[in-house]
Structure formats: structure tokens, C-alpha cells
Amino acid sequence: MPDPEQLDWSALERLRALFLSRDAAAEGPYWRDAATLAAYDATYAERIGWKWDALLRELRLRRWAPPAGTVLLDYGCGSGVAGRRVLSTFGPDHFAGLALHDHSPEAVAFARDRAATEFPALPLLDSPPLRLLDSSQPFTLVVSHVLNELPPAAREDLLALAGRAAALLWIEPGTHADSRALAAARDRLRAGHRIVAPCTHRENCPLFAAGQEREWCHFFAEPPPGVQNDSGWVRFAQRAGLDLRSQAYSCLVLERGTPQADHVNPPAPDQPPSPAAPLPTRILGRAEVFKPYARLLACDAHGLHWLELPKRVDPALVKRLDKDPPVPLYALAHDGRRISAARPLVDTP
After folding, report:
1. Distance between CA 172 and CA 162 in Å, rounded?
2. Which residue among 56, 94, 177, 215 is least packed, with the fewest CB closer than 10 Å?
3. 4-256 adopts what CATH topology?
4. Residue 195: what are its φ and ψ, rounded to 5°?
């Protein structure tokens, strides 16, 4: 990253105060100039990029990609970090071009210049009116960190746009409020799309079941190797008051298609879980690892469950959950309290 002493700290502190207030939209466009966007892109946006790296790594391990030949539309692009991460992962040739949308012309110009530098052969398209999208060109929609800035009418417009997308990749902060807002969007959008991530089922989101008000669907992205020992990042984190060890995020990935053909398709929900019938399961948050067992929050077609994985059942997995957790997708057999069999559905190399 750039020397922290050379960053525009007045701009960064103003942006962080806006984001933490959860009322950034009330201030109108907050990107004032290219220098502000450059400082943000090198710092806060780069941390958001680590969240995208974590999600995109999972998607590649699961051999999923958005439909080829679609336009990549980066909605609320800011400095353009989300779109660039998606392009880097799947390759610029996978897409028909890049379109950028933001309430700030300065942000669109900055993101466009960065994309042109990084992907010089990629067509950069003028964004058509959003209401016209998909009538002439299918599009893959990328959304990053916008929900807490959108007033109700703008949220409805975004959901309508997402409903027309050939594929949707969406990341929000891993807070209780943002996670549950994204889960509500998931329930609105699932009718016409396959659910790729994070869900292993397409039932009503169990976060909204009675008694689950305290829970939320979130995950943690690790920084790239060496970040915590990088003097620039360490000084930046100290001044900004940030923890570099991991970044919490919530996510939603959808693909237009037959709803029944989800990528992880569980048995019918009227079949109760049993040791003989492991269910595809997503582990939320972090597992708590103790000496004799790991405790974890599991989400499957039957709802949310706080489960214990005894060390004797799978000592290697318990150890990995503590030190090097795999992608948090498992086939779990349990009785609602204890896990009797566990197998990762996606392993990490």
C-alpha cells in the first residue's frame, strides 16, 4: 500500500465517519475528487477486496462462474474494486464488457480509468438506464456494500434490477443488520434464480424464524499473507482503528435458472435429520473450538442449529476448524445437538 503518511487522512477519516454513521446516503455523493478515491482504493477498498477474494475463491473451488458473454455491471461501483476482483478471477474475456453505475460521476470516472489500466482489452460500456438492462444484453450484477446507504425506494430499484440479472454476486458488511437485510433480499429474489451461495437450500431463510432474532449469516475473510507484518498496513490499521486479522462479510450469489436445480440440493425438509441422512450444511460465523469438541452454528434445510462436533468423531476436522478452516460447506449428520458424521463438501488445497 502507499506510505500511510502520504495518504489524504482528512478524506479517509471523513469517509469512515460517514460509513460508520450508517447514514452516508443522507450526505449525497461523498466522492469529492480523484485523490479521495485513490486514498480509499488503496486502503478501505483493498480490505473490501479481501472479502471478494474469499467469496470468489470459494466459487472457483466449486467450479462455478457467471454466464459467459454477459455484461458485468458494477452497481454502486465506488472505486471499482468489486468489479476488478470479479474480472481478475474469471478473466476479462469471460464478459462482453464492463458497465459502471454510481451516484457519483467522479467515482465512475475513477473506476473506469482503473479498469482500463488493468484490463486494456476489455470493452468499457456506457451504462444504459438501469430499467432497460437485460432487454438487449444479459448482465451479471455485482453489488458491494450499498444496502446501508440506500433509501427504501432505491432498495426496491436495486432488487428489481437484481431480479432481471443473469447472475448476481453481492457482498455486504458482516454486521447483524446488514446480514439480515441481505437475507431478506435473498428471500425476495430466490423465486427466479438458483441459490449458489451461501445457502445449501432454498427454504425461507431461518434467520427470520421465531427465536433466531440474535443470529446472522456472516463469514470471515483473511488478509493476504504478509499484511499483518507490513509496516504500512500496520500503521494504517493503528491510525484507522482497524483489526487486520480478518474481515467480516455477508454474501449472496444467484444464477438465473430453474429454482429446483440449486448447486447444493438437500432432501425435502419433511425428512428429519438423522445419522443416516447427512444434510448439506453451511457453518455460519466461526466455530468455537474447545479441547473435547467444536461448537458451531449450522444452517440447513431444517433451520439453524447450535451443534457440537466431538473430537472423537473427526479429530482432524476439529483441528482444522481451529487453525485452518475449509470452505464452510459440509455434509453433517446430527440429532439437533451433536454431530455424528461430518464431511467437508468443498475442500481447500
Report:
1. 15
2. 177
3. Rossmann fold (3.40.50)
4. -95, 115
DSSP state of 338: B
What residue has cell string 467522479?
A: 106
Residue type, 116: A
Bond into 198 cis (ω within 30): yes
Give Cα separations from 315 to 19, 123, 286, 322 (angstroms): 42, 51, 17, 11
Cβ neighbors of 26 (< 8 A, separation 6 or more) are none
pTM comes to 0.91
Place of cell 478501505: 44
Question: Could you give the C-alpha distances from 328 to 126, 286, 337, in angstroms and in order?
Answer: 38, 9, 18
For 341, the grid coordinates are 458424521
Q: Return the pLDDT at 203.
A: 93
At 203 the three-state DSSP class reads coil
Do 328 and 283 contact (CB within 8 A), yes or no? yes
Contact by Cβ (8 Å): 5, 12: no
Question: Which grid coordinates belong to 173?
Answer: 458488511
Q: 139-144 and 167-173 as β-strands: parallel, antiparallel, unpaired?
A: parallel
* Domains in the chain: boundaries: 4-256, 279-344
Q: Are 298 and 270 in contact (CB under 8 A)?
A: no
Segment among 88-92, 127-131, 219-223 with least mean pLDDT: 127-131
